[in-house]
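Section 5.1 Outputs to date
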Amino acid sequence: MYQIQQVSDVFVDACVRNEAGQLMFLSAFGRDTAVKELMARMELSLSDNHSLSELTLKGTCDHAGESHAVMVGDPKRLDKHTGRLPKRKLFGNMTHVWIYDPAIREPDKGSRSAWLVDRFNSGSSSNSEPSNSDIRERIWATIVHLASIPLLPHWRDTVLHEVWRDMVFEMGKTTSEEYNPRFSKPLGDMQAFRIALTEDFPNVVSQLIKDGKLFLQADAAQTVLLPINTQEVRYA
């Protein structure tokens, strides 16, 4: 758990940031008045001394000694959802709030980008593709949804391997020299991926076909090359 330094008695159990350390998702608990104060101060103009343009999350218990900065950015882009915990719980009447950028929930086909947030998978390591088959399938399904060209199911592993470095980014891992992974490390038992297909994605797939790495049939790799003339394939 983490405590928000700027607002008393509000605790965070999960937080996702983008490459620049900007807030994408926050799950927090607190008394009703404390949670309302948090949401209200995030909405204030930057010229107001009580506004919150940045949150400082201080680690507690197992995370004692940690400190993480979370940039709020434009508060108008953030949605909020609240709920109350049962009064019979140990800490009494508590409010649970989720603050998130809608981009983390809805893929954007126009910009060919999407987010995937899941519980942490210990099988994933820096700069490598995750070994968890479920998250790999979800990432592949997202790429299929965003792509402007048709993709066959058995192309999954080959295409993922080809685009992983440049089009699939795991927050908190080294994905680009322009960003420090420390600023985007998910907090709590979370992992987050941002998929951003480049305009060159159709050409990447086309080149894989030309190189004989993608086939029409799933078992064709063991027999013959893809029986089409790639020079005649056009991608939107």
